Fold this protein.
Amino acid sequence: MTTILYWIIITIVIANFLLGVWLQSLSIKASKNPIPESLKGLYDDEKYAKQQSYFRINHKVAFISSSVSALITLAFFAFGGYGWLDGVARGLSARPVLQALCFFGFIYVLTFLISLPFSIYETFVIEERFGFNKTTPKVFAGDTVKSFMIDALISGGLLAICVWIYTLTPEWFWLIAFGVFAAFLLFFQYFYSELIVPLFNKQKPLEEGELRSAIEAFADKAGFELDNIYVMDESKRTTKANAYFTGYGKKKRVVLFDTLISQLTTDEIVGVLAHEIGHYKRGHMVKDMAMSLLTTLATFWLFSLVIDNGAIAAAAGAPEPSFWVNLAVFSMLLSPVSLLLGIVTNIISRRHERQADAFAKDHGYGPAEASGLKKISAQALSNLTPHPVVVFMEHSHPTLAERVEFLEK
């Protein structure tokens, strides 16, 4: 059984990598297709050549990054890295919580160090070359350190709580741990803009004027109570534009990137926000949260079935089962299920995006949203001809052409 599991995991790692390479090859092939009729004129010849160059260099870097990651993962598992790391963790402490933190802390730091050079290259070479980057080395370093610390504290804290719960009640660990995760997810969603965003960006209320009046008038017309409209200083990092909606109840707020305000007209911004409000009015945020919680519950339950399985630990080269080794191997075994679940989630997400577009269109902002989406995509040098298979498997939104054609009907 141990040998079978060993080769199953090796196969999964290789298959995941090859699947990614295949999807990238489809994307590159499809990028040469003619631009859809509804998007003609979005790029002139010079800008289209620039977009194609930007698209290809990003795919090249993504291929190198995924190759390095796959090779290290494969080597670490194949040569008993998990078993060795388990021994190191056990040698550092006799407490299960500290052993788990040592084990996953090493993996987290290793993953961070592998990804950091690619992040630096993407920001200061690719994004700089194509005119997107506004990030200074100081801001980048600050963002990197803060992101590292926040991820470590949140992930480490949740891991420690889960291991502690398991030591107290192995039988009901999965249900109690799920309750902790569910409470955290709800808390995080509710307070994200107040607790996390200010660590990276300044948010200030949108000033009184034409734009605020137009947004409030639409919200009132749509029956959407909206008091919090904020502008975020994303221009200190990038020229790319965006907006998002977050929170529930009195904590819900609309956040506009300052780059969005500088690039779009008032009607176009309201059109983009009408789409975001459509998500709320159609209950998408609640549905997405419910799906996330159900998935988390199922994952905890499945893990509880193999948490003390000796064959799984042995496949990783560990002499005995443990929460941390079995969790690491379980996550690898679960990746095919995660892939299928991701496809289902993307299908649902694309359906929600169409419903949100329909909401904006029904309220008279279809053409305005379409115009705004085209400007945002053109400014960001977005690929206009994604391959249908890639869209099906990886895209959470319909293609820009599909959205524009629907909105402009």
About this structure: The longest helix spans residues 45-78. The longest strand covers residues 253-257.
